[in-house]
Specification:
heterodimer; A: about 325 residues; mainly alpha; ABC transporter involved in vitamin B12 uptake, BtuC; two-stranded antiparallel ribbon; B: ABC transporter involved in vitamin B12 uptake, BtuC; about 5% strand; globular
């Protein structure tokens, strides 16, 4: 058989599959909207929906970085703690009356460097991404406790900083604007640049990417650094929103970010990712908890529904895939 | 072709190394000696008993995790299974007043969820990471609903608490139970065809399947075993605390994975060590215990554990690279 032909075919199938999954997600969201607008009058209002969107921004930003990491076939469990480290760094500096610009730069540098450190462990020490980022997560959380001495950082809300998490532009809350800009930039990077294509190529087949001359080590380090940067962005905005940085800040966010990406059709085994899907995935996670809230259902159901949703989405993907195979 | 040649070349070197756990054992012994010198209380009999008792709960979960990792999977649901099995065990004791019925219910709960994990993984072909991650959140949710006021309690009858608070031949009962489980599992892992199939599937699933191993059945059994171990740990913890808070077991999956990986089990499958899991869990226990004795803040525990994981895995990677080159 002609090899290049089959891979091209596979690529189109993969692309169609993502598209179909996206349509599925949109239908799912629409179904929730219809059902909920019947059950609760306060659901389908602009203020409620922007509220959901604003809540989902933090996971969405993490999820964008995670989409790149997952597409290379890796995973980044450290994003939750990176949020805390970066938000903490910026807040800590601001509380000493440092100018906001160097404080923000320090926060972003913190996240990017921790991310690059993950990348170095994965490439140079050849530690599996799961373990490398798990270790970073553990070390980072310990550092947060030692650094804060278990007393949350406060008193850093200088005027300009408040705007990041609580300001409004054109009637939209600033975090939402940040998410939209981040989405547009990253979508361009992912689909239209060499870097983005290399990420997908590397995730589809490590060996062939290497053989075709991609500097795979540098590529992976960049991807983990990007994930760290996105986590820093999310953490700094969250620090501005909450007005305090707790040592436990961001705990568990990594799993929600992974869930958002996977619900959106990004594959855990690499080679396939969708930023639109991730944005939808993050939105759906918060839409469900919002619906559960409005219906006065026990919030404990939230975790159950989220778990089942992941299984259903991924299970359906498998079933449609095997149906597809039979057709071929 | 390349892959098989590589595998063939790689295989003898694995067998040549007679005692894989030597490196990490030295780390454990060094830590032990350091703590004995640093703190006069460390070597006291009661402290050693405490140390063992602190370590066995993670150790049991780590045993199951070792099997799962060796087959090339992962089980992130053990923390919730642990908590929920403890709860069903407690509820059964409240309902019937019989400790035996409670323990049995708890263990069956764990095996049941393990079975469900295995079926979802093999039949729906969903990645183990996702299945067990989703199940973790589903089972935790069920536990939260079950223990509507924050915890399940009122089952502390003497028969039951003896399981974790009693002593037999000078050792705490959970330690004895762990030793028995260890012997059985070591035998299973090293000397039965089941154990060899697990390693075979983890090394090369396709090859194992083609040589007639029923990979799906073995996989399901391995996840059931992992569920059973988590449930056993949960039942013992319930007996120790006489109550099951709804967060019981949260985060145990990470400690269990850390114990297994520190002990030399590979995340990529095909290589696992039950003895390594013991050493890994003991190292984690010694760090906690040592920080307590030296009155160092427990905050440092996470930092030290993280660093030890990186060092242990990096050393393992580098030595295995060297042996590949030879």
């Amino acid at each position: 058989m002609n090899n290049s032909n089959t891979t091209a075919l596979e690529a189109t199938i993969k692309k169609n599959k993502i598209d179909r999954q996206l349509i599925g997600l949109v239908i799912f969201v629409a179904a929730i909207m219809v059902i909920m607008s019947i059950l609760s009058p306060s659901f389908l209002t602009a203020s409620n929906l922007t509220n959901v969107l604003r809540q989902s921004v933090f996971i969405m930003l993490l999820g964008f970085g995670m989409t790149f990491v997952l597409t290379t076939g890796g995973i980044d469990l450290s994003v939750g703690v990176v949020m805390a480290l970066s938000g903490g760094m910026t807040g800590w500096l601001l509380s000493f009356n440092v100018n906001i610009v160097p404080a923000l730069i320090a926060g972003f540098a913190m996240g990017t460097l921790v991310g690059a450190g993950n990348g170095l462990m994965v490439t140079k020490l050849r530690i599996t991404p799961f373990i490398a980022t798990l270790a970073t997560m553990s070390i980072g959380r310990g550092v947060m406790y030692v650094w804060t001495n278990s007393i949350p950082f406060r008193n850093y809300m200088v005027g300009g900083f408040r705007f990041l998490g609580q300001g409004n532009v054109l009637g939209l809350q600033f975090p939402i604007i940040v998410a939209i800009i981040a989405f547009i930039v990253l979508q361009f990077v992912f689909r239209k640049t060499r870097f983005g294509r290399h990420v997908t190529a590397f995730g589809s087949n490590n060996e062939s990417a290497k053989i075709s001359g991609i500097n795979t080590d540098r590529l992976q380090i960049k991807v983990y650094a990007l994930s760290g940067f996105m986590a820093a962005l999310s953490g700094i905005i969250l620090a501005s929103r909450l007005e305090t940085v707790h040592p436990e800040m961001g705990k568990g966010y990594e799993l929600d970010a992974i869930a958002a990406a996977i619900i959106g059709g990004t594959s855990l085994t690499g080679g396939k990712g969708s930023l639109i899907g991730t944005a939808l995935g993050a939105f759906i996670i918060y839409l469900i908890s919002n619906a559960i809230n409005l219906l006065n259902v026990d919030p404990d159901w939230e975790t159950i529904v989220k778990g089942i949703l992941i299984l259903v989405v991924v299970g359906v993907e498998f079933l449609s895939h095997s149906a597809n195979k039979r057709k071929l | 072709m390349m892959a098989t040649e590589k595998a063939l070349k790689g295989r003898p070197s694995v067998h040549k190394k007679k005692f894989d756990e030597l490196g990490i054992l030295i780390v454990a012994i060094a830590l032990f000696i350091f703590l004995s010198i640093a703190s006069p209380h460390f070597l006291k009999f009661t402290n050693i008993q405490n140390l063992l008792l602190q370590s066995v709960f993670v150790m049991l979960v780590g045993f199951g995790m070792t099997f799962v990792l060796t087959i090339g999977g992962i089980d992130l649901s053990v923390g919730s299974i642990l908590g929920f099995s403890g709860a069903t065990c407690g509820l059964m004791i409240i309902a019937t007043g019989s400790a035996a019925a409670g323990v049995l219910t708890g263990l069956v709960t764990g095996v049941g969820f393990g079975f469900l994990n295995g079926i979802l993984i093999t039949k729906l072909k969903i990645a183990p990471f996702l299945v067990t991650f989703a199940m973790n959140s589903v089972i935790r949710g069920i536990l939260l609903l079950t223990s509507s006021n924050g915890s399940v309690s009122g089952f502390g009858i003497d028969d039951f608490t003896w399981l974790s608070q009693g002593y037999a031949i000078g050792l705490p009962v959970p330690v004895i139970i762990t030793i028995i489980v260890f012997v059985i599992l070591l035998f299973l892992f090293k000397f039965t065809s089941f154990g060899r199939y697990i390693t075979a599937i983890g090394s090369n699933k396709q090859a194992a399947f083609l040589s007639g191993v029923s990979t799906n059945r073995i996989t399901v059994i391995v996840y059931m075993l992992s569920g059973l171990m988590a449930a056993l740990s949960g039942v013992l913890l319930a007996a120790r605390m006489s109550s099951v808070p709804s967060e019981l077991g949260a985060g145990y999956e990470m400690d269990a994975i850390a114990a297994a990986v520190i002990g030399g089990t590979s995340m990529a499958g095909g290589k696992g060590s039950i003895i390594g899991a013991i050493i890994g869990a003991m190292i984690l226990g010694m760090i906690s215990n040592g920080l307590d004795l030296l009155s160092v803040n427990q905050f440092y525990r996470q930092i030290i554990v993280g660093i030890i994981i990186v060092v242990a895995v990096a050393l393992e990677r580098l030595t295995s690279l060297k042996s590949e080159k030879v």
